[in-house]
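FIELD: query
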Amino acid sequence: MRILLVEDDAMIGEAISLALKDRAYAVDWVRDGATANKVLQDDDHQAVLLDLGLPKRDGLEVLQRLRQAGNTIPVLVITARDGIDDRIKGLDIGADDYLVKPFDVNELLARLRAIVRRQGGHAAPLLSNGKVSLDPASHEARCGETVELLSAREFALLHALLLRPGAILTRNELEERIYGWNEEVESNVIDVLIHGLRRKLGPTIIKNVRGAGWMVDKPV
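FIELD: result
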């Protein structure tokens, strides 16, 4: 899953970026509100972690412009502003959730998983198409009686496919879910990851659509 982090504090931004990458997220980090607005106009992210006290453009203004443009991307506000009025205003403008600094990174990850699930219409914590299920909290995948702990990138790839069962994702789309802006894309990494997932969970779990990409079956 690709996350846009909007945070001007270098220490906090670095800590959040590392924590997200350790949990298989691709992270793109910007440090001011004006840049965030530009990126969100045409970029492909699955969620936004948005600080409010930003240079150049306040986080609430970034959020308001985003929602006025009809963009429904999940937004988790992370801020030191702990006043109830600020929280109410952020939620009324269109934030999906609100987390006050300082926070535990595990709570951040849990809230992020929750808003992405809701956006995708997945109320339950597990992603499943009826054949394979994936637990975003533990990174365990189950197929029949087989339960496997996935590597970070195996998880990221299978997660991307299960968020859109029946949809074909291209190589480029899958690479975007795995790598951030400044990360070098390894040659044939998608093929290697799919081979590993098929070996762990079964050869038919991910289907190749020749010349187009890969998919998992729609729910039965």
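FIELD: remark
The CA atoms of residues 175 and 184 lie 10 Å apart.
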